[in-house]
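In practice, a research group might receive sequence data for several interacting partners and want a quick structural hypothesis before committing to experiments. The following worked case mirrors that situation: the sequences arrive first, and a predicted assembly follows.
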Amino acid sequence: MKDSHGRTIDYLRISLTDRCNFRCIYCMPADGVCALAHEDILRIEEIEQIVRVAASHGIRSVRLTGGEPLVRKGVVELVDSITSMPGIENVSLTTNGVLLPGMAGELSRAGLHRVNISLDTLDPQQFRDITRTGRLEDTLAGIDAALEAGFDPVKVNAVTVRRLDQDFLKFAKLSCDRPLHVRFIEYMPLGDSSESGIGWGKEDVIPSEELLETINARAVESGMEPLRPAGSKPVGWGPARYYEFPGAMGTVGFISPLSRHFCSECNRLRLTADGKIRPCLFSDEEFDMRAAVREEGPEGIERVLFEALGAKPDDHHDKVGTERSMNKIGG
Ligand code: SAM
Ligand code: SF4
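A structural hypothesis for the assembly, expressed as tokens:
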């Protein structure tokens, strides 16, 4: 599928639920979300139908996200069914990792290829402050489980926020002794910051260039060699720029949605848990896939898919606000 700006669209991100077992301060209000009603959420079979049609038109990669995708009943069966659909080459998952120790094995057997685990700090107290309900050791156990289950690559995604004063060198060093691919992602001041009342804004965004310099300066101070451009990139490298410490088993990537737009490389559509297709993360324009799948079947799915494709903007033109927060869009 090509959009009206000539980009090939072959990647679908699917939010399986808006619910989560964490309450990250930049993503959800402390008392949780006003969860979507059961009938408003796409059923597993409806998601399968949508992916089947999307795959017949060129979607090759699917990422399951949320909310926390592993709290959604039927996720393993969904992975099993999507990975065996004609045309689908890659199925991946973005998770906070907590449920991976009990699920990594069955997800791997179901055919899941890759896992991204979100972790913003290695400090237990800061972890609790950010997630409100989480324990650092649970997410670390999730990373161990992902490596043991043989997912390749295992990426660890950290959102960088100036006022959090995270220890970025310690984080980057996670890539040294194990095949972990650490990625630093610029915080995006979406609708969530006003909703959760944290009031974080553009001043909290740490541009990736600055972060790279900070990490390298600290590495040199501590007697390490600085990061250098990575020799080979992990599979599914997407819009990150990758570096590595000499001799490290993994890499360190920087994703810069704000300081370096990667709109010209955009290859994705998003499907929200309540069945809306979003052509762009930063735009509130949505297309009603739920009505199409429920009322019209495959022809309706196809129609909405192409309407959304035609509406993909060329760039987000510095707009970062949206009505919905990440747990609702599917980060
Ligand atoms: N619960 C899963 C997890 O945390 O990995 C999947 C959903 S979560 C919304 C996906 C990713 O979005 C997480 O890595 C999270 O840190 C990130 N995220 C949420 N709000 C964000 C924001 N305002 N800016 C940048 N990243 C954000
Ligand atoms: Fe949950 Fe992920 Fe949002 Fe944190 S970032 S509250 S783990 S959905």
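Before designing any experiment, note the following. Residues 208-221 form the longest helix (14 residues). The two ends are 23 Å apart (CA to CA).
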